[in-house]
Amino acid sequence: QVQLQQSGPGLVKPSQTLSLTCAVSGDSISSNTAAWAWIRQSPSRGLEWLGRTFYRSQWSSDYEESVKSQITINSDTSKNQISLLLSSVTPEDTAVYYCVREIHPGGYFQNWGQGTLVTVSS
Amino acid sequence: DIVLTQSPDSLAVSLGERATINCKSSQIISYSSSYKNYLAWYQQRPGQPPRLLIYWASTRESGVPDRFSGGGSGTDFTLTISSLQAEDVATYYCQQYYALPYTLGQGTKLEIK
């Protein structure tokens, strides 16, 4: 059974960097039938796919255009976890952030982390 | 980006009755070579993350009750709950994985009448 356990602060100051970690159990993040994504949810934007990382003989990432200048998704195979960094945050980045396992071939979201409410406020 | 528009935004159905939710894509989300439709459905109960119900438009995820079914092709898709149960009260979302960025509909809130 695949489980995704998220951790990280719930409050970030404007202009700072949001940092979240997702520890994966039950699957390897190097699996060639999965990708590891971050999705956020807010009342104003709904559910928004931010980006993903995946391993297919080497690590690659894809990012949503509107956050491309802010976002980095990293992998740590020694800990079997991925991380999200979102720089220069504003109050508009306030949302519940989810770590998600995408199934490939395809791209549907089979497993979700528990969610982390991140509030951007001074 | 592919836009998914769900209808209705909210829906009230009596226990035991059928509920149907629609999802319309701004473009075709299937490849003619595979005849597969790149659409999934999720259920989100309050305070919980979304849960995968259906993928490839009509394939039920393991453990999902068979009262849930998905249909449609091309640009028009439906999620049907054949006999509404109290635990089905939730918001439902469709998602396309045909092209990046993956996008989801705005959600349909399902309540008991």
- Quantity of strands of chain B, as a count: 13
User: Helical residue percent of chain B?
Assistant: under 10%
Largest sheet, strands/sense/barrel of chain A: 7 strands, mixed
Order of helix and strand elements from N to C terminus of chain B:
EEEEEEEEEEEEE
Assembly status:
heterodimer
Helix content of chain A: under 10%
| Termini separation of chain A | 39 Å
Shape of chain B: globular
Q: Provide the residue-averaged pLDDT of chain B.
A: 97
Q: What's the mean pLDDT score of chain A?
A: 97
The largest sheet of chain B, given as strand count, sense and whether it forms a barrel, is: 7 strands, mixed
Show unreliable segments of chain B: none
Return Rg of chain A in Å. Answer: 14 Å
Overall form of chain A: globular
Strand content of chain A: over 45%
* Rg of chain B (CA only): 13 Å
Description:
Helices cover 0% and strands 57% of the residues of chain A. Chain A is globular, with a radius of gyration of 14 Å. Chain A is mostly beta strands. In chain A, the strands form 2 sheets. In chain A, strands 2, 4, 5, 6, 9, 10 and 11 form a 7-stranded mixed β-sheet that branches. Chain A has a 4-stranded antiparallel β-sheet with strand order 1-3-8-7, with no helix packed on it. In chain B, 0% of the residues lie in helices and 51% in strands. Chain B has no helices and 13 strands. In chain B, strands 2, 6, 7, 8, 11, 12 and 13 form a 7-stranded mixed β-sheet that branches. Chain B has a 4-stranded antiparallel β-sheet with strand order 1-3-10-9, with no helix packed on it. By secondary structure, chain B is mainly beta. The model of chain B has no long low-confidence stretch (mean pLDDT 97). Chains A and B meet through strand 5, strand 9 and strand 10 of A and strand 7 and strand 12 of B.
